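[recover] target loaded
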Protein backbone atom coordinates (compact mmCIF):
# COMPACT_ATOMS: atom_id res chain seq x y z
CA UNK A 1 0.00 0.00 0.00
CA UNK A 2 2.78 2.40 0.94
CA UNK A 3 4.72 1.58 -2.23
CA UNK A 4 1.73 2.36 -4.46
CA UNK A 5 1.21 5.66 -2.64
CA UNK A 6 4.87 6.54 -3.21
CA UNK A 7 4.55 5.66 -6.92
CA UNK A 8 1.51 7.92 -7.18
CA UNK A 9 3.43 10.77 -5.53
CA UNK A 10 6.38 10.22 -7.88
CA UNK A 11 4.08 10.33 -10.92
CA UNK A 12 2.53 13.54 -9.59
CA UNK A 13 5.96 15.09 -9.09
CA UNK A 14 6.93 14.13 -12.64
CA UNK A 15 3.75 15.76 -13.96
CA UNK A 16 4.22 18.92 -11.89
CA UNK A 17 6.42 20.80 -14.42
CA UNK A 18 3.74 20.46 -17.11
CA UNK A 19 1.09 21.69 -14.69
CA UNK A 20 3.24 24.65 -13.67
CA UNK A 21 3.84 25.60 -17.31
CA UNK A 22 0.11 25.36 -17.96
CA UNK A 23 -0.59 27.51 -14.92
CA UNK A 24 1.92 30.14 -16.05
CA UNK A 25 0.33 30.17 -19.49
CA UNK A 26 -3.16 30.65 -18.02
CA UNK A 27 -1.99 33.39 -15.65
CA UNK A 28 -0.24 35.22 -18.48
CA UNK A 29 -3.45 35.06 -20.48
CA UNK A 30 -5.08 37.26 -17.85
CA UNK A 31 -6.47 35.09 -15.05
CA UNK A 32 -5.56 35.54 -11.43
CA UNK A 33 -3.61 32.71 -9.78
CA UNK A 34 -6.75 31.60 -7.91
CA UNK A 35 -8.79 31.55 -11.11
CA UNK A 36 -5.94 29.76 -12.89
CA UNK A 37 -5.98 26.95 -10.33
CA UNK A 38 -9.71 26.57 -10.82
CA UNK A 39 -9.35 26.67 -14.61
CA UNK A 40 -6.71 23.97 -14.87
CA UNK A 41 -7.82 21.74 -11.99
CA UNK A 42 -9.42 19.24 -14.37
CA UNK A 43 -6.88 19.76 -17.17
CA UNK A 44 -3.76 18.57 -15.38
CA UNK A 45 -2.45 15.00 -15.43
CA UNK A 46 -4.31 12.44 -13.34
CA UNK A 47 -1.88 12.26 -10.41
CA UNK A 48 -2.16 16.02 -9.85
CA UNK A 49 -5.94 16.33 -10.20
CA UNK A 50 -6.49 15.59 -6.51
CA UNK A 51 -3.96 18.19 -5.39
CA UNK A 52 -5.38 20.91 -7.62
CA UNK A 53 -8.92 19.94 -6.60
CA UNK A 54 -7.99 20.17 -2.91
CA UNK A 55 -6.40 23.59 -3.45
CA UNK A 56 -9.47 24.73 -5.38
CA UNK A 57 -11.72 23.42 -2.59
CA UNK A 58 -9.73 25.37 -0.01
CA UNK A 59 -10.02 28.53 -2.11
CA UNK A 60 -13.81 28.11 -2.33
CA UNK A 61 -13.98 27.68 1.45
CA UNK A 62 -12.48 31.15 1.78
CA UNK A 63 -8.81 30.50 2.39
CA UNK A 64 -6.27 32.83 0.88
CA UNK A 65 -4.22 31.51 -2.01
CA UNK A 66 -1.08 31.40 0.14
CA UNK A 67 -2.83 29.17 2.67
CA UNK A 68 -4.61 27.02 0.08
CA UNK A 69 -1.31 26.21 -1.63
CA UNK A 70 -0.31 24.26 1.46
CA UNK A 71 -2.22 21.36 -0.13
CA UNK A 72 0.69 20.98 -2.55
CA UNK A 73 3.16 20.68 0.30
CA UNK A 74 0.94 18.25 2.21
CA UNK A 75 0.33 15.94 -0.73
CA UNK A 76 3.55 16.20 -2.74
CA UNK A 77 6.10 17.13 -0.11
CA UNK A 78 9.21 19.19 -0.72
CA UNK A 79 9.13 18.67 -4.50
CA UNK A 80 6.30 21.18 -4.79
CA UNK A 81 7.81 23.64 -2.32
CA UNK A 82 9.25 25.94 -4.99
CA UNK A 83 5.93 26.28 -6.76
CA UNK A 84 3.90 26.78 -3.60
CA UNK A 85 6.41 29.16 -2.03
CA UNK A 86 6.72 31.34 -5.13
CA UNK A 87 2.98 31.86 -5.51
CA UNK A 88 2.42 32.14 -1.74
CA UNK A 89 5.08 34.80 -1.40
CA UNK A 90 3.67 36.80 -4.29
CA UNK A 91 0.18 36.56 -2.77
CA UNK A 92 1.17 37.35 0.83
CA UNK A 93 3.39 40.33 0.09
CA UNK A 94 1.64 41.67 -2.97
CA UNK A 95 4.64 41.18 -5.23
CA UNK A 96 4.19 41.50 -8.98
CA UNK A 97 3.46 38.05 -10.35
CA UNK A 98 5.38 38.37 -13.63
CA UNK A 99 8.94 38.10 -12.20
CA UNK A 100 7.79 35.30 -9.93
CA UNK A 101 6.42 33.37 -12.90
CA UNK A 102 9.61 33.95 -14.90
CA UNK A 103 11.74 32.60 -12.07
CA UNK A 104 9.33 29.72 -11.49
CA UNK A 105 9.30 28.61 -15.11
CA UNK A 106 13.11 28.85 -15.29
CA UNK A 107 13.41 26.69 -12.17
CA UNK A 108 10.93 24.15 -13.54
CA UNK A 109 12.72 23.84 -16.86
CA UNK A 110 16.09 23.51 -15.13
CA UNK A 111 14.74 20.80 -12.85
CA UNK A 112 13.18 18.97 -15.79
CA UNK A 113 16.54 19.08 -17.59
CA UNK A 114 18.33 17.72 -14.49
CA UNK A 115 15.79 14.94 -14.17
CA UNK A 116 16.26 13.98 -17.83
CA UNK A 117 20.04 13.92 -17.41
CA UNK A 118 19.76 11.82 -14.26
CA UNK A 119 17.48 9.39 -16.07
CA UNK A 120 19.87 9.25 -19.04
CA UNK A 121 22.81 8.42 -16.76
CA UNK A 122 20.98 5.39 -15.35
CA UNK A 123 20.14 4.01 -18.80
CA UNK A 124 23.48 2.24 -19.48
CA UNK A 125 23.24 0.45 -16.16
CA UNK A 126 19.70 -0.68 -16.89
CA UNK A 127 20.65 -1.84 -20.38
CA UNK A 128 23.74 -3.78 -19.34
CA UNK A 129 21.84 -6.85 -18.14
CA UNK A 130 19.75 -7.35 -21.32
CA UNK A 131 22.81 -6.63 -23.43
CA UNK A 132 24.85 -9.31 -21.66
CA UNK A 133 21.99 -11.81 -21.62
CA UNK A 134 21.26 -11.38 -25.33
CA UNK A 135 24.77 -10.84 -26.71
CA UNK A 136 26.86 -13.26 -24.68
CA UNK A 137 25.00 -16.44 -25.74
CA UNK A 138 25.15 -15.45 -29.41
CA UNK A 139 28.86 -14.68 -29.11
CA UNK A 140 29.46 -18.07 -27.53
CA UNK A 141 27.45 -19.85 -30.24
CA UNK A 142 28.97 -17.98 -33.17
CA UNK A 143 32.58 -17.54 -32.07
CA UNK A 144 33.56 -19.96 -29.31
CA UNK A 145 31.64 -23.13 -30.25
CA UNK A 146 32.99 -23.33 -33.86
CA UNK A 147 36.55 -22.81 -32.58
CA UNK A 148 36.15 -25.53 -29.95
CA UNK A 149 34.52 -27.89 -32.48
CA UNK A 150 37.35 -27.28 -34.95
CA UNK A 151 39.94 -27.94 -32.28
CA UNK A 152 38.18 -31.15 -31.21
CA UNK A 153 37.91 -32.42 -34.79
CA UNK A 154 41.63 -31.72 -35.33
CA UNK A 155 42.49 -33.60 -32.14
CA UNK A 156 40.36 -36.61 -33.16
CA UNK A 157 41.96 -36.74 -36.58
CA UNK A 158 45.52 -36.74 -35.18
CA UNK A 159 44.94 -39.49 -32.60
CA UNK A 160 46.44 -42.96 -33.58
Amino acid sequence: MRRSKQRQINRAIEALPDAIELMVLVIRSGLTPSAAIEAIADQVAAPLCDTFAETNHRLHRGQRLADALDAFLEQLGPAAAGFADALSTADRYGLPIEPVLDRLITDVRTERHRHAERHARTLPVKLSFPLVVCTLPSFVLLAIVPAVMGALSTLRGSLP
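[recover] notes: The two ends are 72 Å apart (CA to CA).
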